[in-house]
Amino acid sequence: VRIQQAREGAPALAQVEVRGSAVEAAEVEGDSPNIVLILADDLGLGEVRSYTNTAIAPVDSPVPTPAIDRLAEEGLRFTNAHSPSAVCSPTRYGLLTGRYAWRTRLKAGTVVMHAPSLIDPDEQTLAELLGERGYATAMFGKWHLGLDWATTDGEPPSRTGDNVDYSRPYGGGPVAHGFDTYFGDDTINFPPFTWMEDDRVTAVPNEPVLKDEVLYGFRAEGYEFVDVLPETVRRSVDYIRDRAGGDRPFFLYLSLTAPHAPIVPPERVPADTGRGMSEFARDDGLTLYSNFLRLVDWSVEQVLRTLDATGIAEDTLVIFTSDNGAAKPFASHDHISPGFVDGVLLRGQKADAFEGGHRIPLLFRWPGRIEAARVSDALVELNDIYRSVAEIVGVEALTAGGQDSIGMAPLLFGDTGESGPQAPRTYGVNHSHRGGFAIRRIDADGREWKLIFGGQAAGGFSGGTPFDPFTAIGDTFDFETHLQLYDLTTDPGESNDLLKDGVSEAELELVLALQSRLQAFIESGQSRVH
């Protein structure tokens, strides 16, 4: 069954309305499913078989993804879902807070090595929101939102960590922001290279790591990249088994480190009969990257197997997604595409303002509550998960989070007739690696327009320079250099910039309206609009 999106006209630009709960309290009161949120790292649309195995997609994914595809078969698959940023940390921030990261100190890039926590103590994370509703909460895997390290000299931590006192607990991590427990390694490609549990490292990193013959950081004895994903999955399986049948629902955030570099699929992860986990064996006939994709799917499989084995699958909402699009430097040798929409190849890659940078897989499964095998082309963003979960568990008003989050509950549980449920979002904002903005709007006729502020990828890995959205557009304005306008309804591959060869009066009016709307979003501190 395909949901045909019914779109409303956009509100007047002068109005920025705060959106309340999209579901009547009576519909959600008492709902307390277990919630498992799985976030892949750098997984694009073109790497998931259920997004490529169609008659109109000219290139299939490089390897089968049966576990992820099972979520699509048994739940709802979104085809117009976007990460709020085309890189890691900003998306993770938006996922946990329902707020765009460019509202914080992070105006571009990601949280760097040993940087302090990006999440303000006064912000309410998704884990804190659920904890107040009686949920047990746990996180396993990649954090990459900063930690407040103690130092040996009282100065801020250096990038390498040579003045960090790793024997003392750190602040600002998952347990400081609502998670009862945490196990992971913060960021696999950044120091310190060591396991972390709750608010401490499990082993002090004291082995110097060099990069280009310069000190890069420190590693703990016994820590190996290849062990990271299998171990975080084991911890997640153990957590589900421990919580199954308990008197409190749980929220599990499993943040995978793949297929992000370093590309380190293990040769073998043996089956674990005690945990009910299946074997992973590297296929030497495939590239390391393709095997890493297989490991991502294996990780999802272990979670689903555990939910089935413990008898709580029907009581559990599973959400699977990715933080941004595929990274071409690591994926291109496998002929991996950034994905397709209506058979058209998406443009760009991770970090770009183009669709390939932030159009990502998003799947929801809740047996008996979310109808199986549904597909929606509704516009949604990952920061919408915050308010959607709040709606499901009966939170009617958000007080310290969700400023840029719009509930998806009508899409998850709404009428599936010909007209379909009304889409809750008609605007979306995306951000490139270097801080370039893009804004999209779905008009009253259902056409989707996108305005990019900058040339090329507006500061992404594919090049270009961001352009300030508050710059006045006058009679002598150089449209071709500073702005790009696309009709995504007819041109999802962003091949025809409507501003390239002259600007019509209607196009200028649209550009000014989109610019004004983005300015309003930035200045108002929130973007919850119909």
Give a quick precis of the structure.
The protein is of the alpha/beta class. It has a single domain (27-430), classed as 3-Layer(aba) Sandwich (Alkaline Phosphatase, subunit A).
Number of strands: 23
The CATH architecture assignment turns out to be: 3-Layer(aba) Sandwich
Indicate the low-confidence ranges by residue numbers.
Answer: 1-30, 416-421
Largest sheet: 11 strands, mixed
Helical amount among residues, as a percent range?
10-25%
Number of helical segments with 4 or more residues: 13
Q: Record the strand order, biggest sheet.
A: 1-18-3-17-14-2-11-5-6-7-8
Structural class by helix and strand composition? alpha/beta
Quaternary structure: single chain
Strand content: 15-25%
Radius of gyration: 22 Å
Shape: globular
Describe the structure.
With 530 residues, the chain is an alpha/beta fold. It has a single domain, classed as 3-Layer(aba) Sandwich (Alkaline Phosphatase, subunit A). The protein is built from 13 helices and 23 strands. It has helices at 25-28, 49-52, 66-74, 88-97, 126-132, 228-243, 288-309, 328-331, 355-358, 384-392, 409-413, 479-482, 505-524, and strands at 2-3, 34-40, 76-78, 81-82, 136-142, 181-186, 196-197, 200-201, 207-211, 214-219, 250-255, 268-269, 280-281, 316-322, 340-341, 344-345, 362-365, 374-376, 380-381, 427-431, 437-442, 448-453, 483-487. The strands form six sheets. An eleven-stranded mixed sheet has the order 1-18-3-17-14-2-11-5-6-7-8, sandwiched between helices. A four-stranded antiparallel sheet has the order 20-21-22-23. It has a two-stranded parallel sheet with strand order 4-19. Helix 6 (228-243) runs parallel beside helix 7. The two termini are 25 Å apart.
